[in-house]
Amino acid sequence: MFFLRKADKLDADILFEWVNDPEVRKASFRQEKIDFAEHFEWFKNIINDEKYNLFIFMNDNIPVGQIRLFSDNERIIINYSIAKEFRGKGLASLMINQAENWLREKMDTASFMLVARVKFDNIASQKTFMSLDYTPEMRKDYIEYEKQL
Q1: With 90 as the cut, is the pLDDT of residue 116 above it?
Q2: 147, CA 20 to 30 Å: which among 18, 100, 105, 129?
Q3: How far apart are CA 7 and CA 18, in angstroms?
Q4: Global pTM value
């Protein structure tokens, strides 16, 4: 069974492993490898920041990905990755859908815009957001996908 759980301090290592995966670095706007000290400082800050919600996407007791939701006033910025051994199985769509459901419950009746920024060469993420009815808008260096919830 797939589900989201809030990340905790024990997730720092697996998130560090995932963030430095070559495919994740390639899809990121910042492509250089992240060192552990920098990662750990970022992790300490984000895990305690009320503007962020960081989840680990689980398949029973196996972590398969992560999704971050950053609240920027009326917009929520989505950032996610799937562990390399689980890519190509449609899990990103399932994970984002579960995050949307969590947001609907948390935000009550408030309306908000979900936003994701995807590089031009990240075809898999483009297909994922299109399959979830996000609207693409071309920017200079990326495609911005939006969905009103």
Answers
A1: yes
A2: 18
A3: 14
A4: 0.94
